[in-house]
């Protein structure tokens, strides 16, 4: 990082010792970092929740909340879990290091702090934080583009948010790993982002599409996969985007996959997508009740379109908790 870049980075120093805070602050401020301070663990948490902080230096032995507890709380919150944490400690026992790793610490500094080591670790972690911020910004742009597509159709308001929530509920019921739940949460929002590549006169056509127009429309999952492919963090999202219009009997698109050839996560999104479409009002029909929607889904399962096990699991989830269990999910 250059000195100008340093000036944009904010470092929190949390230590109950004023001389320690002053020493660390002086070192960092000479390198043009912005420094904020906290005298104990609770004040550190308040600072981290209320201000933009790029990196936290936490003394382990602090009153009210120690450094381990502050770190664990930070890493458990979606709003702060990506803030790098360095635990500054005079503890030398290996179990203390293990405890720090378990709490989510990104690095350690031993007391007395060596200036060169401090600056090297701060620079390294802030570079990683910069990469993470750029990734988050790219995801935010994708989500905004996806929601702009939804906003063009007054009958699909809230559809993406519901799919994001519903699919995670079903995924957790199936016992899918956390990375696949995260992928479904993202895919619920951006599954139709490929419609950016479909001309608006086709996308918003009020009547049936011509055969030529359908050929173009059926390419939107492929367009979506291409748009999102550069993001490595979306590797589990890409199959969902590409295959959420496949059907169990192979009559779907774009690849005509059959049965379990279709990725499970894509089948999960498809199941909740169809359910949401049936229970949402459209210009040509009223919204179906949950019971009517499952009657229709079972009819379509009999035609070979959908995964019968997933339809049953979704119905069981609703039966156990009622429709509100999905609406209030997450």
Overall description:
The chain is α/β, with parallel strands linked by helices. It folds into 2 domains: 3-133, Rossmann fold, CATH 3.40.50.2300; 152-327, Hypothetical protein af1432 (Orthogonal Bundle), CATH 1.10.3210.10. The chain is built from 16 helices and 5 strands. It has helices at residues 3-7, 18-30, 41-50, 67-76, 94-103, 115-151, 159-173, 178-190, 200-203, 211-217, 220-228, 238-243, 264-278, 290-302, 308-321, 324-327, and strands at 10-14, 34-38, 55-59, 85-89, 107-110. A 5-stranded parallel β-sheet has the order 2-1-3-4-5, with helices on both faces. Helix 4 runs parallel beside helix 5 (94-103) and helix 7 packs across helix 13. The two termini are 38 Å apart.
Describe the SSE topology:
Layout lengths: L2 H5 L2 E5 L3 H13 L3 E5 L2 H10 L4 E5 L7 H10 L8 E5 L4 H10 L3 E4 L4 H37 L7 H15 L4 H13 L9 H4 L7 H7 L2 H9 L9 H6 L20 H15 L11 H13 L5 H14 L2 H4 L3
Helix pairs in contact: 3-4, 4-5, 7-8, 7-13, 8-13
What's the order of the H and E elements?
Answer: HEHEHEHEHEHHHHHHHHHHH
Spatial strand order of the main sheet? 2-1-3-4-5
Number of separate strands: 5
Number of helices: 16
> Structural class of the secondary structure composition?
alpha/beta
CATH topology of the largest domain: Hypothetical protein af1432
Q: How many structurally independent domains?
A: 2
Q: Which CATH top level class of the largest domain fits?
A: Mainly Alpha
Q: Assess the beta-strand content as a share of residues.
A: 5-15%
- Low-confidence stretches at least 5 residues in length (pLDDT < 50)? 2-6
Which overall shape is indicated by the principal axes computed on the Cα atoms? Answer: elongated
Radius of gyration: 25 Å
Largest sheet: 5 strands, parallel
CATH superfamily of the largest domain: Hypothetical protein af1432
- In whole angstroms, how far apart are the ends? 38 Å
Q: What portion of residues is helical?
A: 55-70%
Mean pLDDT: 86
CATH 2nd-level architecture of the largest domain: Orthogonal Bundle
